[in-house]
Amino acid sequence: MQIPVELALEDYLTVIFSGIGLILLTKMVFAMDRTLGRMALIGSILTIAGGALKATGKLVMAMDGPNIAFLNLGLFPLIAPGFTLVGWSLFQVRKIMQGKPVSRQPWLVPGIVIGVVALGSGAIFNAGGPWRVPLILLSSVANISLLVMLAIAAWKRDMKMVSGFYITTLVIVLIMSQMAQIPFTDLAIIWFEQLTQTFAQALFAFASWKYGHAAVETYRRSPALQMA
Questions:
Q1: Which of 40, 15, 28 is nearest to 208 (CA)?
Q2: Among 23, 193, 202, 220, whose Cα sits 20 to 30 Å from the Cα of 212?
Q3: pLDDT tens for residues 128-144?
Q4: Nearest 5°: CA angle at 180, between 24 and 8?
Q5: For residues 200 and 169, is the Cβ–Cβ distance under 8 A?
Q6: What's the longest Cα–Cα distance across the chain?
């Protein structure tokens, strides 16, 4: 089905809102630990790049261009490690905020996970199988874990609205991921699906701004945490 250029351009809004949320979370992580901040930054760049590639591939095809493989297939190879790195950095930061020791080798666990999934995906590719499945699974688990962790953290801070925004984002992501498996031909449904995804990422960006600001302020007012 040929999609209109307007629909393809709108997809960039989803990437922009998602990117804003990730950048705000990365800024928060940097304020507490520079090593973890660099991890979050790399993860955010990978995730944003993956979304931008997908949106660009959609735009090229909407303009009667070719189906460029690396644009349309580059999403999961980038967001799988991206979400994993962002999620792990936030998990470690949560430990800092709880006054608990963090890993002395913060790259070890995410590196092993990403490496194993990459090897598995490569092996499936060489066998002519569905090589994207391990990447989809990793990106889904990492993204869900990230949103659940943020929702719980915000709730514990009595930021119930922010927690609700994260939960709403999670629910929409789960529903839309299932809808993406259905080959809709009704343009109105496709518009609804994409606008809903954009709305979810706008909520994510706003929630990350509120939560990140509150978390950093708490950290700066707590010398004991800064010594942890």
A1: 28
A2: 193
A3: 999 999 999 999 999 99
A4: 65
A5: yes
A6: 59
Query: What tokens were used for 78?
Result: 């980038």
pTM for the full predicted model: 0.92
Would you say 54 and 72 are in contact if contact means Cβ atoms under 8 Å apart? yes
Q: How far is CA 206 from CA 46, 49, 217, in A?
A: 21, 21, 17
Structure tokens at 134: 């391990």
Residue 119 neighbours by CB distance under 10 Å: 11
Structural domains of the chain in order of their starting residue, each with its CATH number: 5-226 (1.20.1070)
Instruction: Please give, one letter per residue, the 3-state secondary structure of the chain.
Output: CCCCHHHHHHHHHHHHHHHHHHHHHHHHHHHHCHHHHHHHHHHHHHHHHHHHHHHHHHHHHHCCCCCCHHHHCCHHHHHHHHHHHHHHHHHHHHHHHCCCCCCCCCCHHHHHHHHHHHHHHHHHHHCCCCCHHHHHHHHHHHHHHHHHHHHHHHHHCCCHHHHHHHHHHHHHHHHHHHHCCCCCCCHHHHHHHHHHHHHHHHHHHHHHHHHHHHHHHHHHCCHHHHCC
Identity at 206, one-letter amino acid code: F
Around 24, how many Cα atoms within 13 Å sit in the side-chain half-sphere? 22
